[in-house]
Amino acid sequence: MSVQSSRRVFGLVIGSLSLLLLFQGIACDADYTQALAKSLLYYEGQRSGKLPPIGKLQRLAWRGDSGLEDGSDAGIDLMGGYYDAGDNLKLGFPMAFTVTMLSWSTIEFQSKLKAKYEIANALRAIKWGTDYLIKAHPQPEELYGQIGGIDSDHQCWQRPEDMTTPRTVFMIDDQHPGSDLAAETAAALAAASIAFERFDRSYSSQLVTHAKQLFDFARNHPGNYQNSIPEAGKVYASSGYQDEMLWAAAWLHRATNEQEYLNFLSEAGDIGGTRTTFSWDDKFVGAQVLAAMLVMKGKVDSSGKWGEYKSHAEEFICSCIQKGNNNVKKTPGGLLWFLPWNNNQYVATATFVTTVYSIYLDAKKASINCPGGAAHPSDLIASAKSQVDYILGSNPKNMSYMVGYGSNYPKQIHHRGASIVSIKKDPAPVTCQGGFDWFHKPEPNPNVLEGAIVTPDENDGFADDRNNFQLAEPTTVTNAPLVGVLAHFA
Length: 490
Description:
By secondary structure, this protein is mainly alpha-helical. It is built from 18 helices and seven strands.
């Protein structure tokens, strides 16, 4: 065969291989640095309240001020915070979990965030949430947990700047308890206090004070928060509060090193067993991982209750990396599949704990003895990377499930602010029902909510349709753990 013929054959082979890789959904190397930046930028699109001037403090220019009268019907300033998803509701339970996970991401990957010049953006994202949570806690045993009515909000399609729906406030107190809400908020403020400790000691101390009060409130007045705020149960019903109590105690111990919180963890009767998800509702895995870290650092005994925490944490991780007794299901394209509603929120938390745990294992030159064999730090990282890569485009549809990342991403996500022309471009008010004209337009959203993450179905399919609220509505809880994972890979 001549050299020219050999080259022709080689070219055909390479071309065929490239097509094969393309059809199998194997994308180019991900740009983790860009994805990290966008994962934080997303939170600027979710802000409620008086926004900073357009610039480095408010980079998404299509958003405007909103919710400026929040809290007025109760005579309190409750401006600020985040809208939880594609609606105009401020819901304390998922907001607090968002802040906890943003803080954990920042704590564990601070050096990486600094190296990528994202530490200031991460701290600003946390502080936009914590400033609001502090306002929402005006007395030791009072906590505002929701602003806006579920039904009235969902009956309208308006950008937040035009809201005409009632901004009713809902709270818990000693007569109307909510241990899950109070404890999750305590966890958020305790974790945030650690994130801010090196940057603003006064603010960090303020956060700890609120966190301690909220933990005591949760412990002294037990109860599920949706019994006091029934509205919240329509969208973020809590399955119990024992997980939040452990989660809050673990974060308060890490923030204060006080024995009281360590005792609470060691004396707990229910530590959750082996879980199947880690989410805004179920924090047992998070508490177990934090306890396992104490074991690996030699701060507590490795036997007894502490050994149980560590064992349960590792069993969850084993199931995620497909070496457990009850492995997490995967889509044909390789994405972990937990639950049909916004599945990527569970992928994000599982990937986060897998990544963090790998770092602690590596520091100890240790591995996990999974039922399916030894799991080394490299195994955990490989699993985490496969999930992040899938979200960023290495999937059968070659679609990035992060809005604004890459060239092929969802254009019609279920999000009021993104789907209606910006108030900066057209200040004419959009009415409650008038906004549905925008909702029903079979066109790309006029505003790109950069960094928002949506999810495919269990067969790797995705319908880019605003009606697809089960899969195409981004939430603040999804991005928070991915901030840390993306920082690690960036």
